[in-house]
Amino acid sequence: MINDAAVVPYESLLAQERAARQAAEAALEATRRELFDTNVELQTLIVGLDEAVAKRTAEMLAARDRAIAADSAKSAFLANMSHEIRTPLTSIIGFAELMLDQRRLTSIGRGEALSTILRNARHLLELISDILDLSKIEADGLELDVQDVDLPGLLAEIESMLGPRAREKGLQFDVCPQLPLPRSIRGDKVRLKQIIVNFCSNSIKFTESGTVQIEVIHDRATRRLEIAVVDTGIGMTEGQIARLFQPFTQADVSTTRRFGGTGLGLYISRQLAELMGATIEVRSAAGQGSRFALCLTLDDGPTGPLVHEAVEFSRGTELFRPDDQDWVPALRGRVLLAEDGPHNQRLIGALIEATGAELTLVDNGESAFQEALGGEFDLVLMDIQMPVMDGLTAIRLLREAGYASPVVALTANVMRSDIESYRQAGCNDALGKPIDRRRMYGVLARHLAAAVGEVEQPLQVGDKIDAVVSRLAGEFRDELPQRIATLELLLARREWPRLRSEVHAIKGVAGSIGYPQLTRLAQPAELAIIDQRYEEAELQCALLLDAARAIVECPSC
Q1: Each residue of 279-304: pLDDT tens digit?
Q2: Hey, is 212 helix, strand or coil?
């Protein structure tokens, strides 16, 4: 007998089969979708990987091309440097050998030989300075020294440095300020000067005739200061401009062959500008000259009031005066001069008194320290090397005692490290020896008040100063035989400390009174003694003695 309960209706079985089939289909669909999504994801990854590989390959190829280009540029640079360094070295060595062989020194005079050595040595120093600056920049080892920079003073220094070079080439060199301008700005003075000097040097190099001008423009609305160098030189094409700021390159190969140079100056200038938050803009056309502009944004505005008058802007510098050679500022105030050399005492004293300022003179650091603390001086001029107490010690003691008036170092040692040590000791400024009259008046005018109602002294004052210089030159010349005898004796006895003192004294005074060749020769002699390179010191002292004897034998030569 069949159990009815065990009988499953056909419809129920069919429904179960349908449900099972639908479940299987749903599972298959889910699996299909999952596989599809996975496949899409894999395809996306493959495409992305292909793109990444292609991009990385392109980057590697570009990096390879840049490396090849850089290697090629550096190879060309090294070849160029080999030529650039060997050329001045050949002249230096050749003329130095000629100086030692008196029999051959006939057609070429001693003065011409020394001038050639000096000119080539300066060129060599510029090449080495560029290379060292580049290495510091690439190693992130270059630090800025941000301070208040006297804008007229900065322009004055550049004009005095490069104006004569341009005029020797027959070019007109002018500084053209578009007033009003700030008197002072914040920045690194050394690096600002380096950039503008590079612009000017290039303009002078690439301009055969016409003008080189420094334009200074200040936009008060945007707080933008632009210092531009404009020339009428050979100019450049757009392609040449595009290559300008690459290291080790110049506008083209013919430029290197014709004008020389490292191809580093503009690259270094742009790196320095970027460090200071500034930019460099270039406009040029082939055959129509060039304009290189350093553009600074004065974030805090000028550090002092704007100057609206040319006379006011130029007070304290020799700029923008038609009779700048004879300009003597009219000043008031008390000046303490600490200087032990009798010739420099009289020369610097005459320059100070010509301004109308009141002068007090001492001859050693200890007296300077006591006088400064005991008197109300507006400015202290402190020689660095003096007996009893040196100038640096006196300056440190004054600052430790709370002395607040400006102190300016007087020194024949003006290397960057020397200037930094003076600043750390408490100096506000430094004046190099031999004394540059215009530079000194610029410093005096920055630190002393102008005399009320006057702009400059009569030209007769300049004549009196010239008379003082002439008299001091005569006295120095009369003393020269005794100085020569002293140098010869100390050199024969190898008394290096005393010899260094004598050489230093000559270096500090000779150039101020008309014998710059003695100052130029004394400097390497002193450095050799300081570094204990005594064989070189003997050679340098021999050259100094030869030049001194030539002056004794022929004072007017």
Answers
A1: 999 999 888 899 999 999 987 655 55
A2: strand
| 155: enclosing H helix or E strand | helix 151-168
Read off the tokens for 410.
């007087």
CA distance 390 to 398: 13
Kind of pairing between the strands at 172-178 and 211-219: parallel
d(CA 219, CA 226): 8
Tokens of 483: 């100085």
Question: For residues 146 and 131, what is the distance between their CA atoms, to the nearest angstrom?
Answer: 23
At 259, the amino acid letter reads F
pLDDT value at residue 377: 92
DSSP string covering 156-193, please?
HHHHHHHHHHHHHTT-EEEEEEESSEESEEEE-HHHHH
The alpha carbon of 64 is separated from its chain's Cα centroid by a whole number of angstroms, namely 35
Amino acid letter, 96: A
The answer to whether 324 and 438 have CB atoms below 8 angstroms apart is: yes
Chain centre distance of CA 159: 14
CA–CA gap between residue 539 and residue 117 (Å, rounded): 14
Identify the bridge partners of residue 547 per DSSP, sorted by sequence position. none
Rounded CA-CA distance 27/214 in Å is: 84
Q: In angstroms, rounded to a whole number, what is the distance separating the alpha carbons of residues 330 and 445?
A: 8
For the residues of 38-106, what is the DSSP string, one character each?
HHHHHHHHHHHHHHHHHHHHHHHHHHHHHHHHHHHHHHHHHHHHHHHHHHHHHHHHHHHHHHH-TTT-S
Q: Mark the ranges of the chain whose per-residue pLDDT is less than 70.
A: 1-8, 69-84, 87, 101-112, 119, 123, 126-127, 129-142, 247-263, 300-305, 307-327, 414-417, 452-464, 555-557
**pLDDT for residue 300:** 64
Q: What is the pLDDT of residue 415?
A: 66
Whether 446 and 378 have beta carbons less than 8 Å apart is answered as no
Cβ atoms 253, 261 nearer than 8 A? no
Query: How far, in Å, CA of 391 to CA of 408, rounded?
Result: 10
| Distance, CA of 354 to CA of 465 (rounded, Å) | 8
Task: Determine the pLDDT at residue 397.
Answer: 93
pLDDT at 294: 95
Structure tokens, 342: 């009798």
Integer Rg of the chain from CA: 36
Structure tokens at 52: 């990444």
